[in-house]
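Help needed: design a sequence for this.
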């Protein structure tokens, strides 16, 4: 979801509807680490600290039953109603990288001009951001931010300085290229 901010960066939220993204569980499995039992369940629906059982099972939704409802609605809009894959019909690129995932997307665009002019939107967004930025953080080392701020900062840094890639990933890519030849 995103909201424009004519005087600055847009506010953008891009999240998994689960407690954590599946990639975080895959990383724990690769490292041989346990995961919190609040992240996922095994195939039988039991909470698990075993990342491999979690990958075979189900991710826990954010926010309990309310998050469950939101997760289902997102899947209904982006999967079922769009004609794309939904629930367990979405293939995993990490399990079957050659099979298309058939992911769907939903776009809802709101023309803000009937709601307010650009100057009013600019002023209100600046006030909104200012209130949040001036809120004392619980942890002084972690200031209150708007959704997407850290990702935009990372994008700017990587655009200027390049993207760091883990040596293990470079090795894996080189092996793929070698094996493909």
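Sure. Designed sequence:
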């Amino acid at each position: 979801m995103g909201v424009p901010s004519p005087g600055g960066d847009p506010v953008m939220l891009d999240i998994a509807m689960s407690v954590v993204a599946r990639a975080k569980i895959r990383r724990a499995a690769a490292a041989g680490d346990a995961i919190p039992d609040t992240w996922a369940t095994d195939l039988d629906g039991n909470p698990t600290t075993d990342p491999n059982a979690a990958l075979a099972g189900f991710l826990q939704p954010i926010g309990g039953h309310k998050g469950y409802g939101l997760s289902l609605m997102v899947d209904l809009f982006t999967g079922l109603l769009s004609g794309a894959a939904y629930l367990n019909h979405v293939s995993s690129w990490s399990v079957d990288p050659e099979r298309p995932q058939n992911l769907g997307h939903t776009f809802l665009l709101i023309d803000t001009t009937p709601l307010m002019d650009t100057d009013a939107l600019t002023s209100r967004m600046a006030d909104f951001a200012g209130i949040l930025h001036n809120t004392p953080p619980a942890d002084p080392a972690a200031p209150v931010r708007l959704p997407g701020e850290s990702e935009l900062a990372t994008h700017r840094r990587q655009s200027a300085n390049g993207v760091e890639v883990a040596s293990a990933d470079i090795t894996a890519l080189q092996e793929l290229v070698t094996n493909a030849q």
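The first strand starts at residue 2 and ends at 3.
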